[in-house]
Design goal:
The complex is a heterodimer of chains A (about 110) and B (about 110). By secondary structure, chain A is mainly β. Chain A has strands at about 5, 10-15, 20-25, 30-35, 45-50, 55, 65-70, 75-80, 85-95, 105, 110-114. The chains are: A mainly beta (about 110), B mainly beta (about 110).
Chain lengths: ~110, ~110
């Protein structure tokens, strides 16, 4: 158990739906991340939050809207997604955001957009 | 250049073999090079990491070799076991406070019994 829990594990949604992904970390970390993992591609950093403040938005389309109410919880709100957004969405946490910090990943949400 | 190029894409070895996975980078500002291991249905987990001031780091059966002049680093798995079958990602980051870790494309390793 990595201490980072993601729900749901699987999600199927239509292009007009609105859904949210949830991530919770029990490690006392201050930084949380969203990554997108597509087949045969590198993990893509989407957002970074440090002490609840967004510090990185890696040119992510506005149909992905993150929310970090506190250092333990991170959400990714989804609306009007495209089929190419189908992927594994991984949440991670770390003590801080300096180079060399160890990332702890959740098991991910497998998203299918129909 | 922010990319990290990883090869091969997939690798099959027999039990006891020594699979080698290679990564190359362009940005000499990178100062931290971790390897993450991912099993099916799980998120990646840190396996081993190195800083550019050393040429080799070993942890158990896993060794990173680092060639600063060539801007390359590689993962060697000694006496590989079927339980090592997983996807391996190299990564790199710069001395900043952004939390930005650049990952390679991943290598799927299968170790046959």
């Amino acid at each position: 158990e990595t201490g980072v829990t993601q729900t749901p594990r699987h999600l199927v949604m239509g292009m007009t739906n609105k859904k949210s992904l949830k991530c919770e970390q029990h490690l006392g970390h201050n930084a949380m991340y969203w990554y997108k993992q597509s087949a045969k591609k590198p993990l893509e950093l989407m957002f970074v939050y440090n002490f609840k403040e967004q510090t990185e938005n890696n040119s992510v389309p506005s149909r992905f809207s993150p929310e970090c109410p506190n250092s333990s919880h991170l959400f990714l709100h989804l609306h009007t997604l495209q089929p190419e957004d189908s992927a594994l969405y991984l949440c991670a946490s770390s003590q801080g955001t300096r180079s060399g910090e160890k990332l702890f990943f959740g098991s991910g949400t497998q998203l299918s957009v129909l | 250049q922010q990319q990290v190029k990883q090869s091969p894409q997939s690798l099959i070895v027999q039990k006891g073999g020594i699979p080698i996975i290679n990564c190359a980078y362009e940005n000499t500002a990178f100062d931290y090079f971790p390897w993450y291991q991912q099993f099916p249905g799980k998120g990646p987990a840190l396996l081993i990491a190195i800083r550019p001031d050393v040429s080799e780091k070993k942890e158990g059966r896993f060794t990173i070799s680092f060639n600063k002049s060539a801007k390359q680093f590689s993962l060697h798995i000694m006496d590989s076991q079927p339980g090592d079958s997983a996807t391996y990602f190299c990564a790199a980051s710069m001395p900043s406070n952004t939390g930005k870790l650049i990952f390679g494309q991943g290598t799927t390793l299968q170790v046959k019994p």
